[in-house]
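Escalated from tier 1: adenosine-5'-triphosphate holo job.
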Amino acid sequence: MQPILSVRGVSKTYASGHRALKTVDLEIAKGEIFALLGPNGAGKTTLISIICGIVTPSSGTITVDGHDAIAEPRAARMKIGLVPQELSVDMFETVLATTRYSRRLFGRAGHDAYIDEVLRDLSLWDKRNSKIMELSGGMKRRVLIAKALAHEPDILFLDEPTAGVDVSLRRDMWKLVKRLREKGTTIILTTHYIEEAEEMADRVGVINKGELLLVEDKAALMKKLGKREMDIALVE
Ligand code: ATP
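Tier 2 regenerated the structure:
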């Protein structure tokens, strides 16, 4: 089957001269949950930012559902929802206004029913008229996901969705991600946590110092590298 995302020979050297990504090749199947596992500074955000058209690669090609992400960035971006690490929302806005605005930014007008469904799926419906500043940390993260889903993307990128959250919120996030996949969304997430990759992903890619060291289905990876050894492998 044709992959929904194809990354070929992608590298990145920043203007500072830092080589953040060596040559990365990766294919993601439709409907898959893929975890990119690696320590701080491994190049996870750089890779996501390149795929989402935020950072220009130094070399390589990216195809998103048949669209060349460099030649047709808008068409490729329409297919992608990005949940960044930072809380990138106007705290004074309501949940509903933020989500609708995000949809309009992508030129998708109307379909309020779709937004309502997203808010219900994310258990944000009761908070739709609350200002974002009034929400708990976990709810704020859900707003970021609602915002990313507003334009009906096929692929959702979650950059460290559980960094700095407590165990119960982390479990909530895991459940949520699985529910989104059941609705047909392809999900790519980055994480520092082996247990998170193990819990959520169908396949895991291990990245370190800009190099995609291996990509395995979860079972094979866990067999190949015991948790302890994996921790050691990821020490910089
Ligand atoms: P973390 O888990 O800490 O978020 P990461 O795996 O997402 O890390 P990146 O943010 O992609 O890693 O960073 C990879 C490397 O590239 C790091 O050494 C970082 O300092 C460097 N880097 C990132 N952005 C830039 C930039 N704009 N200019 C120069 N170097 C950068």
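The chain has a mean pLDDT of 89.
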